[in-house]
Amino acid sequence: MTARLYDAHVHLADLRLRPYENEIEKAYRRLNLGKAVVVGTGPHDWPLVLEQSAANPRLLPAIGLHPWQVPRAADDWQDSFLEAFKAGAHAVGEIGLDCWIEGYDLSKQIPVFEFQLQFAVENNLPVSIHALKATGPLMDILRTATLPARGFHLHAYSGPLELIDELTSLGAYFSFNGGQLHRPAARARLFAIPSDRLLIETDAPDFLPQAAYREHELEVDGEALCHPANLGLAYRAIAELRKCPPTELAITVEANFKRFFL
Ligand SMILES: [Zn+2]
User: 3-class DSSP state for residue 111?
Assistant: First the structure.
């Protein structure tokens, strides 16, 4: 039996994708999708993440306050976060640290990140982490905090090549999307990830892949977005870059996804 495909990180609750829900579902069926982790970013999209996942057994709901949403979050966001887990959330995400976004404030991001990471530890939940230009502060936390026994997931990994061994020993899984694959540095990172820690994602509708890594087009209000079904081409391109037969890669990623997320 051939392995199915798994998206470790996709924003299906992004409102820009709503008009295309049926089309995306049809494309997922053609793709033989096993599961996709539907990642939330804040209280505004958490209800839809839960609703979509409850209606579709292929989808796994992840609830998290994204660092970009920290300045907008209401004071009682933690109550909504905890409620979402009572209502069936399966994973924590997207959480993280970001020193790339204009006006970032790590003193606000860090306690939000630590609260959510701690919740994942206490409940041994899968956690999906975003880190952009924030390697130092992230490593400070990962090196000293208690981490989930099952490990943790670094989405769209863009940190230094030299840290991959240490992160692996701390329990990291790493995912990459088609939007990263044209960059030589991302290819080098991808090549260095141990097979048993590799995951694949789209981060759709963001991270639009360059034309060579895109086989499904999606344009909303004149803006080109990443179609979630570009997952199939990401798998094929990653197999080629890692010099691994596509069927073998799919079997490996399926095993990794199930071990970490299920
Ligand atoms: Zn994301």
Answer: helix
